[in-house]
Amino acid sequence: MSSNRRLVGILVAIPVVLVIVYLVYMGAVFVTAASMALSQMHRVGIGSPAYYEVRSLQERAEQHRGLSAADMNALRRLSNDKYWIVRCRALASLFYVGGTPQAGLAASIARAKLNDPVPVVRVYALSALSRLHAPDVKQIARKMLADSDKDVRKRAQIVITQGK
């Protein structure tokens, strides 16, 4: 009887030990994956002070609360940030100032980013000009049809065909 209990104990213990080993291993995998994700987020600028600043400005613009001259100057500065995601958010913030006194300055900021080395920033710049109804947006879009990036060319084609 004693040997049967010992055998049952061993048979129960083996799966328990295997489950514990598995959970420890998966925990290590999860921690590694989470660490890699955080590292990637920091590499593109998510979590930087500039990211939080531009996110706040974008939320204010989206809620149509108006952007002050100081806000527009901040967006100009942020549109030149070292992180492409911050530059994109700065340009996206400009989408909402069309028809306001800041529209001209917003278009100027967007035009300055049409030659950004990161294609997605060029897409946002062209989109901003389109949303702002800049008078020269179709002419700029025609030039952007020769861009090296297919997404920029695609956005340029969309801008050209809008309003026809």
What report would you give on this structure?
With 164 residues, the chain is an all-alpha fold. It has two domains: 1-44; 49-161, Leucine-rich Repeat Variant (Alpha Horseshoe), CATH 1.25.10. The chain contains eight helices and no strands. Helix 6 (119-131) runs parallel beside helix 8 and helix 7 (137-144) runs antiparallel to helix 8 (150-161). The chain starts with a helix and ends with a helix. The relative contact order is 0.08.
What would the keywords be for this entry?
164 residues, mainly alpha, Leucine-rich Repeat Variant, 2 domains
Short description:
The chain has 164 residues and is mainly α. 73% of the residues lie in helices and 0% in strands. It folds into two domains: 1-44; 49-161, Alpha Horseshoe (Leucine-rich Repeat Variant), CATH 1.25.10.
How much helix is in the residues?
A: over 70%
Average pLDDT score:
83
Structural class, from secondary structure content?
A: mainly alpha
Major beta sheet summary: none
Low-confidence parts lasting 5 or more residues at pLDDT below 50? Answer: none
- Element pattern in H and E: HHHHHHHH
CATH superfamily of the largest domain: Leucine-rich Repeat Variant
Strand content: under 5%
Q: Please name the CATH topology of the largest domain.
A: Leucine-rich Repeat Variant
CATH class of the largest domain: Mainly Alpha
Tell me the radius of gyration. 26 Å
Classify the oligomer.
single chain
> Quick one: how many beta strands?
0
How would you describe the shape? elongated
Total of helices: 8
Cα end-to-end separation: 90 Å
